[in-house]
Amino acid sequence: MSRPQPLSGFPELLPRQRIVEQQVVDHLRRAFELHGFANLQTRAVEPMDQLLRKGETSKEVYVLRRLQADARDTSDAELGLHFDLTVPFARYVLENAGKLNFPFRRYQIQPVWRGERPQGGRYREFWQADIDIVDQGELPAHYEAEVALVVADALKDLPIPKVRMHVNNRKLSQGFYQGLGIADTEEALRIIDKLDKIGPDATAKLLVDGVDATPEQAEACLQLAAISSEDTSFVARIRALGVSDPLLEEGLTELAAVVDAVATAAPGFVVADMKIARGLDYYTGTVYEVFIEGEEHLGSVCSGGRYDRLASDGKNAYPGVGLSIGVSRLLVPLLQAGRLDATREVPTCVLVALANEEDRPAATALAQRLRARGIPTQLSPSAAKFGKQIKFADKRGIPFVLFTTDEGTQMKDIRSGDQLTVDVDTWNPPAEDLHPRIITE
Amino acid sequence: MSRPQPLSGFPELLPRQRIVEQQVVDHLRRAFELHGFANLQTRAVEPMDQLLRKGETSKEVYVLRRLQADARDTSDAELGLHFDLTVPFARYVLENAGKLNFPFRRYQIQPVWRGERPQGGRYREFWQADIDIVDQGELPAHYEAEVALVVADALKDLPIPKVRMHVNNRKLSQGFYQGLGIADTEEALRIIDKLDKIGPDATAKLLVDGVDATPEQAEACLQLAAISSEDTSFVARIRALGVSDPLLEEGLTELAAVVDAVATAAPGFVVADMKIARGLDYYTGTVYEVFIEGEEHLGSVCSGGRYDRLASDGKNAYPGVGLSIGVSRLLVPLLQAGRLDATREVPTCVLVALANEEDRPAATALAQRLRARGIPTQLSPSAAKFGKQIKFADKRGIPFVLFTTDEGTQMKDIRSGDQLTVDVDTWNPPAEDLHPRIITE
C-alpha cells in the first residue's frame, strides 16, 4: 500500500492543530451552555425530499446508496448527507414537538457536507457550531437580539482576529424594493447578494435585466445597499431615500430593535448593513453575517437569520432564529497558516521514566496516583537510556519527567533542567502546564 | 408538511438523554487524556478501495454520489462512509507518518455508518470511542495490557452495569488448530466465533464440513473454546489438552502477559476466554471483547485487538493495538429503557424572571454577571405572571429563579420554595445544582 494522498475539500488536522480546534469548540460549548442552550446531535442523513426543499445549497447534496442494496429493495427512502444543521434541526423539532418544551433553545456542533467543487476556503466536509431558538406559534422578537449576543459572548475571548456582525432584515429590503415598484423582490434580493462579488455596475445591470427595474430603481437599490451604521441612524438615512411601504416599516422597526439591543450589551460588535442578503432562502426577517474585520473578502465566518416558515406540521408553525459559526472556515486557514498552535501535541503533563522494564507495573501504579489527581501522565515506551527517555518527552512537548533514584522520586522540568525530590501524592505542575494551551503567532 | 417519522437504525436522543450521553463522552475523553491520548478527528469518507480492503464489515458500506456529479466527470474517486474508526486511523497514520511521533497514541470519538439491516441493538449510524497505540516497525507487547487498563479506567466510574473484558489471542487459537492438524485456521476461527450463537453441536458440524476437521479435532477445538480463567491458570489447562505448536506457545506467552498485567492493576476486570475470536479479520494477536456481566447475549459493548498488518507503506509497517467503546450500543438501550436520566433537560441553573418587558436589558446584564462566574443562566421568555415564569423553570428542571423586588434581588429555590435576598456577584448554587447530573433508575 503506497502513501495515501489527502482528499481535496476534506481537511484533516494534525494532533497539535486538533488540540487548538478542540479547545475552541470547548469554549463555544461552554458559552452556549452558560446561556442555557442544551446540546443536540442529529443523524448525518435526511431523506432526500427534506434536503431538496430549500435553498441553493440543496443542489450540492451527497446522496447515499447501500453497497449491498438490492435493486428490487425499495423499502429504504433515498437518503443524503445534511448540508447544514438548520434543516435537520427543523425536522427534529417537528418530529419531537410533543416531547419538547417551547421556546426551545439548542446548540449543535457537527460536520456538514456539500458536494461542491472544492476551492479556497470552501470545503466538502466542515464543522459548524449552531445555536437556535424555536417557538411554537409565535417567536418573540427579542430572541433576534439574544442569539446575536450569545455569539458575541462565544467569540469574545477566542484567539481569533477581531470580528464584527453585519445585520439586516429581509422585510426591510424587500419592502423597500416593493415600495419602489419592483415586483420580484426575492430575485432582487438574490441579485443584491452578489454586490460584493460583481460590483455596483454589474449589479445594476442585473436588476434592470432580471427584475425589470428602471435605471432609477436600480440606483435606489444600490443606494439602500450602501447604507450602514453602528447605531440606529440607518433608519433616518433610509427614510431620506423617500420610499414608503408597510413591509419596509416593519423591517426598519425590527432591525432598529436588534441593533439597539446588541449595541447596548456588546458595544462595537454589531453594524446594520443594508447589503446583507444571505443565500439561503428560508430566512424571513433578520439576517446576520459575521466577518473578520479587514478580511471581509474571505466571506462570513458565522451567519444566520430568522426563519418563520421552515417548520410547520399543519397545526402549528415553529418559527425560529439562529446563527451558525463556521468552525472549520474560521480555524482551518489560521491553523494551516501557523497563526494558531498548541504548546504541545499531547495532553500528557508528566512522563514516568523507567530504569528497567521490570519496573513497569510499579510505574503504572505511580502514574495512576498522578492521574487520580487529574494530572495527565503516561509511561515511557521502554527502559531506554535516560537521555532517550527525556528526548521522547521533549519531542512531544511533555514538560515533566518523573523517575526514581536512591534519593527518592524525582520530578524534572525538562525545559529548565530543574529537578526536585517530590511526593507524587501532593506535587502539582504550574497551572499553565497542566493542559496544552493555545498560542498565537 | 406532516410530522416526520424516525429513520430505523438512526437513533436520535431527546435533550435530557443527550445530556447523559454528553457527560459519559466527557468522562471517556477525560480518562483517555489522563493517559496521554491526543484527540483526532478523521473525515467521514474514505475512498472505496480502502474500505473494501478488510473484513466482513466492509460489505455494509454506504457509497456516496454527488447529486450534481456529471456522468463524464471521473475526477472524483468513489467515496464511502467509514464503517469503523480503525481503517481511517490506519490511513491517517500512513498519510501523516512523517509528521507524527511514534509510538503514537490517539483517541477518536465519532459516528460510524453501516448499511446493514437495522435490528435489535444494531444501528446504521452509531458513535464509537476508540483508543489506539501505533508504532513504526515494532510495537512493544506491553501496550496490549495498557490499552486494556485505559478502558478499565475509562469505564470504571460510569453509571453503567458492571462490565468485564474477555481476552484471547489469535496466535493461541490458530496455533492450537495448526497443532491439531487443521489447515485452514482462519476459517476455523470464523466458525468458533459463531459458537455462542449456534451452540457446540452446530459448531462441531461446521468444523467438520468447513475445514475438514475430524470429529476428534472438532471436539478438541470446542474443549479449547470452553477454557476461561481470571488468572493465568488457563495456560496449564490448555497444555493439558496435549497439543503443541510454536505459534500456540507464542500466543500462550502473550496472553498470559496481558492477563497478568491487567489482573494486577485492575483486579476482577479481565478474564482469559478462549472462545473470543472477533469478526474483523485485521487482528493478528490479542483480541478483546467487553460484555455487560450477565448480559453477554447483548453482544460486546467494547472490542478490539492487535493488528500488525493493517498499515504499511512498503518501507515501514505500522503495527497497532486498540479498543473501541460502542458508545451508542452501550447507552442508547439504557436511555430508551429509562435506566439513565438527567436531573434536568437544560444546562440552565438560574432563570432570571422579568417584572415587565422593559426590564430585559437590565436583566440581560444581571444574567451576564452570573455567567461570568460560570453559572448557566437564561432569561424568561416574557414578563408573564410570576407563577407562569416559575412554571417555565419547573417544566425544564431549572432549580433557581432570580427576581427583583423592593427588598432587592431575590433567589428562589423553586423545589423547596426557599427565598433569599442575594448579592448576584457572590451567590453560588450548591455544587450539585450547578450542572445537570446523571441519575440512575
Q: Your description of this structure?
A:
Chains A, B: One of its GO terms (molecular function) is histidine-tRNA ligase activity. Chains A, B: It catalyses: tRNA(His) + L-histidine + ATP = L-histidyl-tRNA(His) + AMP + diphosphate + H(+). Chains A, B: Its EC number is 6.1.1.21. The structure is a homodimer of 441-residue chains. The first copy, chain A, is built from 14 helices and 19 strands. Chain A has 441 residues and is of the alpha+beta class. The first copy, chain A, folds into three domains: 8-139, BirA Bifunctional Protein, domain 2 (2-Layer Sandwich), CATH 3.30.930; 140-307, Bira Bifunctional Protein, Domain 2 (BirA Bifunctional Protein, domain 2); 350-440, Rossmann fold. In chain A, the strands form four sheets. A nine-stranded mixed sheet of chain A has the order 1-5-6-12-11-10-7-9-8. A five-stranded mixed sheet of chain A has the order 15-14-16-17-18, with helices on one face. A two-stranded antiparallel sheet of chain A has the order 2-4. In chain A, helix 1 packs antiparallel against helix 4 and helix 6 (185-192) runs antiparallel to helix 7 (195-211). Chains A and B meet through helix 1, strand 1, strand 3, strand 4 and helix 3 of A and helix 1, strand 1, strand 3, strand 4 and helix 3 of B.
